[in-house]
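Attaching the record inline, Q. Sequence:
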Amino acid sequence: MDRFAHYDWPFFEPKHAQLAREVEGWAKDNLAHAHGENADAICKRLVQDLGCAGYLNHCVSEKPDVRSIAILREVLAYHAGLADFAFVMQGLGSGPIALAGSDALKKKYLPKAAAGDAIAAFALSEPDAGSDVQAMSTSAKKKGDAWVLDGTKTWISNGGIADFYVVFAKADEGISAFVVDAKEVDASERIEIVAPHPMAVIKLTNSRGMLLGEPGQGFKLAMRNLDIFRTTVAAAALGFSRRALDESLARARDRKMFGQALADFQMTQAKLADMATAIDAGALLAYRSAWVKDSKNQRVTREAAMAKMFATEAAQTIIDDAVQICGGLGVMRGHPVERLYREVRALRIYEGATEVQKLIISRDILKA
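Structure, as predicted:
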């Protein structure tokens, strides 16, 4: 299958196909070694490389083009899950500053994040407040002209390597957003997950934070930020799915069984057909959501939820089928399909688990 054929769809402009082919060439030259257990070091290098190449300008932006971010995630994820992670976390972590920061805060943080000279992190989740943001307990108190934060955040991507964190906390006015420099937090408690990524618990104790936007508007700001990036989770899932399909096709054609190729068996053909169809369906949902956001500049809560739910669930199934087709190779440590099997699982959880997306969709259609 041509991985770039869908860029002829009406959702795209010529610049999008050009960007996809450009980053594909860059990825082939630069991501061969973007795998390994030392995720901290790899991600630090990837952020710098992506910044030098100019790609971080697409996600660290006051006027993001969601289709461009999605295209970059799809291509990067095809080649290396950590490259996709390093790219998108710069956008997710700096997005609230771009959306609501003062001119001074934008000038201080955004150029460095876009250049890859400063690593960003987004700190919303807590031990007892994941998707239920209203259960948040981290507090923010105004002391003179400053804000002081106390509490614990967990499952924080880039925790431990970030130079700054966008932290959400409860003030008297309600949930509010703050920029907190790394020196103000304790990120020594690291979290190990099935596919190595920089992740930590961060603890705030009398930590100084700089307010983003108005007090009490933090929840809306978090949702505005997720409204941009949730769609692109679906694009990352597409990148994983396309790589799994390509690995499956290659194995099915080469593997000989009972005097014929594995691809000659109808059961194999049925799996490949299901995989290809699910990929196209996920791509239609993902890029519809991105197109609506870009062209109509409106909320895409339902569209993004549908895209994320379908594409990530489909990716899990596609990659599981790829492991089955590849057989023993599919579970051999370091094989592309084995890496995909570990990397894809988190996509069904972060930025709202599949069950949360179903609630979002159902509530929206019932309200309508």
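The domain at 120-215 is CATH 2.40.110.10 (Butyryl-CoA Dehydrogenase, subunit A; domain 2). The mean pLDDT is 94.

More tomorrow.
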